[in-house]
Amino acid sequence: MPVYNEEDDLPGSVETLIAYLQANVTWAWRILIADNASTDGTFTVATSLSEAHPNVQVLRLDQKGRGRALKAAWLASDADVVCYMDVDLSTDLGGLQPLVSAILDDGYDISIGSRLAKGAQVTKRTLKREIISRGYITLIKMLFWTRRTDMQCGFKALSGAAAQRLLPVVKDNAFFLDTEMLLIAERRGMRIHEVPVTWEDDPDSRVRLVSTIMEDLRGLVRLRFGGMPKLD
Question: Going by C-beta distance under 8 Å and a sequence separation of 6 or more, which residues neighbour residue 99?
Answer without folding.
Answer: 83, 111, 112, 113, 155, 156, 157, 195
